[in-house]
Amino acid sequence: MNLTLLVLAAGKGSRYGGMKQLDRVGPSGETIMDYSVYDAMKAGFNKVVFVIRHSFEQEFREVFVDRLKDKIQVELAFQEMDNLPMEIHYSPEREKPWGTGHAIWVARHHINEPFAVINADDFYGYSAYETMARYLKNSISKSQGLYAMAGYFLVNTLSEHGQVARGICKVGDNGFLEKVKEHNAIRRLEDGRIVSEENEKLTTLNSDEIVSMNFWGFGTDLFAQLEEKLLFFMKVNANDLKAEFFIPKVVDELVSKGKVKVRVLPCDASWFGVTYREDKEKVMESIRAMVDSGAYPDNLWA
Question: Within 10 Å of residue 37's Cβ, how many Cβ atoms?
Fold first, then answer.
């Protein structure tokens, strides 16, 4: 069965200070995306679609795509502000596209099979891809309106160098997602507490909260749902300079209305990412340790 990996790589990395998706963190110059594609191929994915911007297409091809072309089918989709379901007038001061839900929607013409969605700058671990691939093949491919989400413990997904955004999930006893709420300012305090800040109010969170790291499994029926909700979002937020069409919020609305069911797949794989420039050193150390242990070759594509 064909499976596609959709990699969201259009971000500018404002907090990181550059294009972190192309930053070299492996011993032979690999990016985090290299390890993601390597793990996905090993798990059974046979196509990868990258969502990027036209402004860095040439560099993206030179640094990354060219070395994959003989290993897996590669396609590019472009997330630009004017790539919308219909002509919509928005504020000319808007500087970035419309969020992760929009990024997935722009790839609709490239995907005709069950697919997984990941962030370009997150390392999820091989076992997460293996678990997701199995569920895509055995469940999502056979039923519309059935999706999946890789669930990680909050305590394992924080940055030592600043706040992070996470979707906090409520999971039912049956293993299906009941609710996901996006928190855009989560951090650990000096006393060890993990808190979320909203409107200058701090809320303490449990370390074992299940969070979404934007590792989703979908069927192609998602695209029609996305388009409908994207149109409504744009009518309301076209002139908002910061509003984003987040995929966790879309999924939460679909779940709450009973339109879809989302299986939460527990993941004990190692996760790490590069939200801030200071995170890079830890990422490089973690990858070096896995290479030394034999989990990955020293030169990933040799």
Answer: 26
* Residues 128 and 35: beta-carbon distance below 8 Å: no
Q: What stretches of 70-178 show up as alpha helix (H) in DSSP?
A: 100-105, 126-138
Contact 112, 220 (CB under 8 A): yes
pLDDT single digits (tens) 177-219: 999 888 889 999 989 999 999 888 899 999 999 999 999 999 9
pTM for this predicted structure:
0.91
Sign of CA dihedral 90, 56, 276, 40: positive
Q: What is the CATH number of the domain that holds 168?
A: 3.90.550.10
Residue 298 in domain: no
Q: What's the rounded Cα separation, in Å, for the pair 85 and 231?
A: 7
The number of domains in the chain is 1
pLDDT in tens, 131-175: 999 999 999 988 899 999 999 999 888 888 788 888 899 999 999
